[in-house]
Amino acid sequence: MDVTFLKSAFRESHYPPSDKPEIAFAGRSNVGKSSLINILVNRKNIAKTSSRPGRTQAINFFSVNGSLYFVDLPGYGFARVPLKVKSSWQNMVETYLRKRSNLRAVVVILDVRREPASGDVDLLRWLSHFGIAAVIVLTKADKVSRQQAKKKTGLIARQFSEITSAAPFLFSAKTREGRKEIWEKLREVSASGLPPDHPESGYRIED
């Protein structure tokens, strides 16, 4: 898989051209967002992982096989980040979500061991309000038993049923569980809204 870091953006004028389908990744700090991106594209550190929550402070764009953009959004919900910085991040992300015409879906990432926070609920409501597809991924599935993971998947689906009909995917960076299923969903949503004869409609992502 050919994956290239394109640029970091802090405002709309910094975005790359909106000429390809785009998938954004969002979640609270330290839910495993960077690890999910790395596993999906089979790269060790294309998206930087960190033990310091709140490190991602820009919107980072990646090209995947020249046919798709992945976008790593700043993590949210970290208490130690100054209020002024939080406000700046919120405005930056909201501008991106409202104005990015080629955005096909946002992958909302939750830690399977934790209860969804108000920021997670707010994000899903916001996406629903603006008609942006959500793909819910529950990370760190290897940290709980199979029974616990399945139970949590059902609980999350019911909890968010009034906001989205999206069925959550279980994912583990350690075992790579869920990678194939998540990619299948991303292929599906990336092709949505494109005419059948569009060069990116029905494209394939290869390892």
Keywords:
207 residues, single chain, 31% helix, 5 helices, alpha/beta, globular, Rossmann fold
What would you say the CATH architecture is?
A: 3-Layer(aba) Sandwich
- Helix content, binned percent: 25-40%
How big is the Rg?
Answer: 16 Å
Strand order of the largest sheet: 1-3-4-2-5-6-7
CATH superfamily: P-loop containing nucleotide triphosphate hydrolases
CATH class: Alpha Beta
- What is the beta-strand fraction? 15-25%
The overall average pLDDT, rounded, is 85
N-end to C-end Cα span: 5 Å
Classify the secondary structure makeup into a structural class. alpha/beta
The ordered H/E elements are EEHEEHEHEHEH
Would you give an account of this structure?
The protein has helices at about 35-40, 85-100, 120-130, 145-160, 180-190, and strands at about 5-10, 20-25, 60-65, 70, 105-110, 135-140, 170. With about 210 residues, it is α/β, with parallel strands linked by helices. The protein has one domain: P-loop containing nucleotide triphosphate hydrolases (Rossmann fold), CATH 3.40.50. A 7-stranded mixed β-sheet has the order 1-3-4-2-5-6-7, sandwiched between helices. The longest helix has 17 residues, at about 85-100.
Set down the secondary structure blueprint.
Layout: E1 3-9, E2 22-27, H1 33-40, E3 59-64, E4 68-72, H2 83-99, E5 103-111, H3 118-129, E6 133-139, H4 146-159, E7 169-170, H5 179-191
Parallel strand pairs: 2-4, 2-5, 5-6, 6-7
Antiparallel strand pairs: 1-3, 3-4
